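Handout, page 2. Input:
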Amino acid sequence: METILDRIIDDKRKEIIHLKELTVGEIGEIKKQRSFIGKLKKAEEMCIISEFKRASPSKGIINVDMDPVKQAIQYEEYGASAISVLCDSHFKGSLEDLKTVRKAVNLPILCKDFIVERKQISHAKVAGADLILLIASVLDKATLKELYDYTVQLGLEALVEIHDEAELDRALAIGAELIGINNRDLRNFDVRLETTERLGKIVRESGALLISESGIKTKEDVVRVAKAGANGILVGETFMSTANLRQSFKDFKIPLKGVIQQ
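Output:
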């Protein structure tokens, strides 16, 4: 039976057939500009990747009229450590949104997309991305390593996303420095924070840095994933729909000392 994820990946492969292969000259300087990993290593409070996301296949429209520049500027002002920009059409996003946000802020930007080929990473770099999302569930072991190595080669950082033990093993096998535990099962879009609680300790014991993704709506949720080992959280829907964005940031930026498991 075809899942939502199967359909998204099938559409993505069709979408990028005519995506141009960029030359070294077009890709530009191979130099790390803004390091999110560097921020995580120094952080004394929960780091927040705040996401610009207009819609999702599971929730439908979240806030389709939101101005990406206005939202990104507020994210930076209220204390985001990085900004994630949803670039997939199923979420009403595009790489143009990332380009627009890049011009407005100086934070590290995560290209949140379904990356299946190297040329997508090249285009993300040119658009202004500092981080690339690599989803283990949609890539075989060899392709995951190839895309991870290419990301690093371009002077970018990779957030390797996993949802279960098998995917975690593959992320650790390629030496991923930054691992995201997606609490949402992309096959059916069910969300359980227990996923971070189950896998978090293993990630931290490996020496990798940990981001908990999806389903974080309250301060209690943030404390919960922090206790499971999260250095940071990725939050989209909550920030895109809240009536008081400033207060949401205050609630979520909890101190990590004495909370996070070592």
